Each structure stands twice: as structure tokens, then as C-alpha cells.
Amino acid sequence: MGSIDKHGLDRLRGRSVEVSFRCPYCGGSRIVMRGSKALDYWQGAECKKCSSRIVLDTLTLLVIREDGGEQVPASKAEHVIV
């Protein structure tokens, strides 16, 4: 039997998480949010085209590990593309 770990936004801060997506308002600019100790997601990011402020208020990653599978150290960078 394996295990399922749930990682919320608070737990992911400082773990090199990167979220990349098109602006939800105008769709004309790619928004990249990089998680580090210096970046607070509550400050959000600004679209360079339409000047909308985008705030990431929730994010959950599920990590599923089967028995006998290779374990990846938590220090490895995660990358999410939406």
C-alpha cells in the first residue's frame, strides 16, 4: 500500500514552487508566480498587459507514492503549469 500526501499553499512556501498561466482577465500575458521565502503569494502578480492584480489564494498538490517507488527528496523543485 502506498501513501498520499497533501501539500497546501502554506506548506509549499519556500519549496521552489512555480505556477505559470495566462492572465485570467485578458489572456494576453503569461503570469509566473515563483514561491520562495521572499515571495508572498498574497502580494500576487501584476499582468503586464492589462495591469490586473492576480492573487493565488489556494493551491493543493497531492503526492501519491506507491510501495517500492522511488522517493524524491522534498528539496527538489516542484513545477506546476496551469
Helix content: under 10%
Mean pLDDT figure? 76
Largest sheet: 3 strands, mixed
**Discrete helix count:** 1
Number of domains: 1
| CA radius of gyration | 15 Å
Percent of residues in beta strands: 35-45%
> What is the total tally of β strands?
7
Distance between the termini: 30 Å
Highlighted features:
82 residues; 3-stranded mixed β-sheet; mainly beta; 35% strand; elongated
Can you give a write-up of this model?
There is one protein chain. The chain is mainly β. It has one domain (3-81). It is 5% helix and 35% strand. The chain contains one helix and seven strands. It has one helix spanning 9-12; strands spanning 3-8, 18-22, 30-34, 45-46, 53-54, 60-65, 79-81. The chain has a three-stranded mixed sheet with strand order 3-2-7, with no helix packed on it. The protein has a two-stranded antiparallel sheet with strand order 1-6. A hairpin with a 6-residue loop joins β4 and β5. The chain is elongated, with a radius of gyration of 15 Å. The N and C termini lie far apart (30 Å). The mean pLDDT is 76.
